Amino acid sequence: MRIQLNWFDEKLAQRIAAIAAGEMAPAAARNASTVMIVRDSGGSTGVEVLMLKRPRTMMFAAGAYVFPGGSVDPADGQEPVTWHGPDAAEFGRRLGATPELARDLVCAAVRETFEEAGVLLAGTPDGNVVVPDGPSWEADRAALTSGSLSLAGLLARRGLVLRADLLTPWARWITPDAEPRRFDTRFFAAAAPAGQQVRGHEAEADKIAWLRPAEALDAARKREMTLLPPTATTLGEFAAATGVADIVGRDRTVTPIQPVLVNEDGQAWLEVPDDVGYPL
């Protein structure tokens, strides 16, 4: 399937040509994690998913509606984290990663979700999910965002364990070779923890909202909302769910999806594999 892009410039055209000719190596793709927080729709079947509208000043995906997430940080793998749920080797099997990378990806998923949305996928050692609320929690969140506090440090300070069992590996998308900024992103699904309140981070989001997948896709078709292909594809999959139980806890096979940028007569196209089921 081909998606016509409404932006293009000579510099990108030259990169496409140079990489295709073997004259330029693609930029290295940074490992990243994204988390789709879902909840059952009130009063009807289906789900709602938490989405952030990125500020137009941001370098990547400016103005687009996205799920919480971001790049793996070096600190994500530097300190031991108390862990509850499938071990890193099991996550690695499902994500197509080494146990070490899988651990970092899970830590990044939990850290970024707390930083950007205020949702913390962690709990007490006896299995209860924590409810982060109050000034001290906001101070810890700010310290985590600034890098002065690590996720491991936050959990240790609060006597908490990372709830890896709340994360369901869902997909893996790799940015096209010709893009100058590239990411190798693993997508996880998680149910909204009971009692936790969503709080957006002003530097990361102009708006934060719970949206029904079908309605978000309809808004994108009307050009009222910008969705990146991985986001739209995931929303298309979630639109068929009757509830959170159809999504969270599934043992999905995660295979890499890497679209290709093509330049034909000055027009840019993004080629996405037909079996992906791109809904727009």
What do we call the CATH topology? Nucleoside Triphosphate Pyrophosphohydrolase
Question: What does the largest sheet look like?
Answer: 8 strands, mixed
Global geometry:
globular
Top-tier CATH class: Alpha Beta
The H-and-E topology, N to C, reads as EHEEEEEHHEHHEEEEHHEEE
Helix content: 25-40%
Give a written overview of the molecule:
- This protein is an alpha+beta fold and 280 residues long.
- The chain has a single domain, classed as Nucleoside Triphosphate Pyrophosphohydrolase (Alpha-Beta Complex), CATH 3.90.79.
- It has helices at 10-20, 88-95, 99-117, 135-146, 151-158, 213-221, 229-238, and strands at residues 2-4, 29-40, 47-53, 65-66, 69-71, 83-84, 122-123, 161-163, 168-174, 182-191, 207-211, 256-257, 260-264, 267-271.
- The strands form 3 sheets. Strands 2, 3, 4, 5, 9, 10, 11 and 12 form an 8-stranded mixed beta sheet that branches.
- The radius of gyration is 19 Å and the shape is globular.
- The model has no long low-confidence stretch (mean pLDDT 89).
